[in-house]
UniProtKB/TrEMBL annotation:
This is Pyridoxal-phosphate dependent enzyme. SUPFAM superfamilies: Tryptophan synthase beta subunit-like PLP-dependent enzymes. Pfam families: PALP. It comes from the Bacteria. It comes from Sphingosinicella rhizophila. Its cofactor is Ca(2+); Mg(2+); Mn(2+); pyridoxal 5'-phosphate. Keywords: Magnesium, Pyridoxal phosphate. Residues 23-309 form the Tryptophan synthase beta chain-like PALP domain.
Amino acid sequence: MAENQYPPLTLDLIREAAARIEGRVNRTPVMTSETLDAMAGARLFFKCENLQKVGAFKARGAANAVFALTDEEARQGVATHSSGNHAAALARAAGLRGIPAYIVMPDNAPVAKQDNVRRYGGEIILCEPTLEARESNAARVVADTGATFIHPYDNLMVMAGQGTAAVELLTDCPDLDLILCAVGGGGLLSGTAVAAKSLKRDIEVVAVEPAGADDAFRSVKAGRILPSIKPNTIADGLLTSLSERTFAEIQRHVDDIVTVSDTAIIAAMRRMWEVLKIVVEPSGAVAYSATSGTGLDLKDRRVGIMITGGNLDLDWLPWMSPKAQA
């Protein structure tokens, strides 16, 4: 059984992570809006990880994983493969500790994302845009440098770091009835669910996933991991499939999972820009998009919503794309 393969994530590990990363990441604000409350028929509390260091929650897990290493483990640096926010987050965390960061990125990764990694001092190794190429190149880098590999989500210290966002949310808003959290690889969802259920036993945790990348939805229903095959969604931060480690935590602690269309994601993203006055990327709008059209009963409930990030190309906004009209 997946539940028995790995040591479980615990609230103690998440609290240790919070102490470890204090002062190294932002304690992000919780925003509210009477306008959005009225539209949803509920009280909404937005945890703004788009205002986090590197513009995403990934800063938490990367910082915890890097600073949890012993001096001997850290001496040769850290490595990962990522084309997204984890790449920049790991480069930043390594820079804070004064160690090298080797980031394997597909050669079609946006130049802006590559520039972001370099800005934080990461050394980029470009490869073919396939998972096999990413993994083989990362393995070679680790073998050549002795660096410690830190997976974007299949890592207990990364998961614990991500869970600190939910601890902060429930500290600021202890009377929440439900938390909506997007799911890609499952690191944030795992941390959120463990923290929430440990702090408030009767709280509900609902995962939200793009319909075009619905491996978590299918996996939960089937009781086994069914990886994504050619996922297609505007929420590019949620294209990865679950790992056995994150799936085990989701099976244990997540109450439900719903899917949302790209049209709903784009509409939610635009509404957040217009009403909350904040920059949110498509993946960051996924959780909020579930407040309508998914059949969830939110009426008069207090709902926490994880805004996962705010990194996107400002020269290309989705409501200006033909896809927004689909």
